[in-house]
Amino acid sequence: MSNANVSVLPSRPGTGKTVRRRPGVGKSVSVALLVIGAVGMIAPFLWMFTTSLRDASHAYDLPPQWLPTEWDWSNYAGAVSGPVPILKNMFNSAVIAIAVSIGMIITAPMAGYAFAKLEFPGRNSIFVGLLSSLMVPAQVTIIPLFLLMRTFGLLDNPLSLILPGITGALGVFLLRQFFLGLPQEIIDAARMDGATAWQTYRLIALPLAKNAVSTLGVITFLGSWNAYFAPSIFLNSTDTATLPLGLVLMLGPYGAGNVAQVMAATTIAIAPALIVFLVAQRWIIASLTQSAVKG
Question: Which of 74, 92, 114 is the last residue of a domain?
Fold first, then answer.
């Protein structure tokens, strides 16, 4: 009988007996659940890619074809050269997502540090008011925001999405929680050395928060890249539309568009988000690990 799955531990003191430990049932169940979850996550993407390589008339075949049986790359050419400027829409999404992410990683750390380490009148009350905005759905504030953007003449303009997105209560909250975990002794030592509040933040606190800031930037980028509700309100032309709007326009008002070309465009659309996540995953993991072992 093979002992490949049996771990051998050192003998117990005074007994001379070797302890053998077999893998637990709990570990096997956990691995099985993870595999099932991974398959469930991958299946829609696999169907999307498979559909993008076949004729649109076979897009809804039952049972669904999970593996490519056709390799018709013309759907990708049709998605790019069709009446909807999908590459232009992708460029619009990239510009908006990058601008919003840069704004967020500039404003949120500063506000989070101020709420965590600086003393000023009404600090707690202001922070509670800021957090209360997280409980208000975006649909409630969209009408006042729309009227405000119309007053400034920013409708059908990327700035109507960039300006409201360059800061947010969630980003401030996340960075405040991180800065609260920084030892106060570090801040006090900087002050004793004559550093101003800005110098302490820029030279000491901010470098220590690079993993948290990077994670916030990735989350903000992906959220802006995938956003549909706000762009559908503020943007009303194909030239200024973002990528999610472009995909809806390709499908048509009654869903009568070429499904295979839509799936091809969607496959192209997820590539930038996937690249961003793969590049930044080490910062995300480092941030989560740092938060887990803190304290």
Answer: 74
Torsions phi, psi for 9 (to 5 deg) = -105, 160
pTM of the model: 0.79
Residues forming a β-bridge with 8: 20
In a domain? residue 1: no
Q: Is 89 exposed, middle or buried (0-12, 13-18, 19+ CB in 10 A)?
A: buried
Do the Cβ atoms of 92 and 240 come closer than 8 Å?
yes
In the chain, the DSSP E strands lie at 7-9, 19-21
Whether residue 102 contacts residue 224, with contact meaning beta carbons closer than 8 Å, is answered with no
pLDDT tens digits along 233-292? 999 888 899 999 988 888 877 666 788 888 888 888 888 888 877 777 776 666 666 554
Which residues of 90-205 form beta strands (DSSP E)?
A: none
Report d(CA 80, CA 86) in Å as an integer. 6
Taken as a whole, the chain contains a residue count of: 295
- By CB neighbour count within 10 A (0-12 exposed, 13-18 middle, 19+ buried), where does 9 fall? exposed
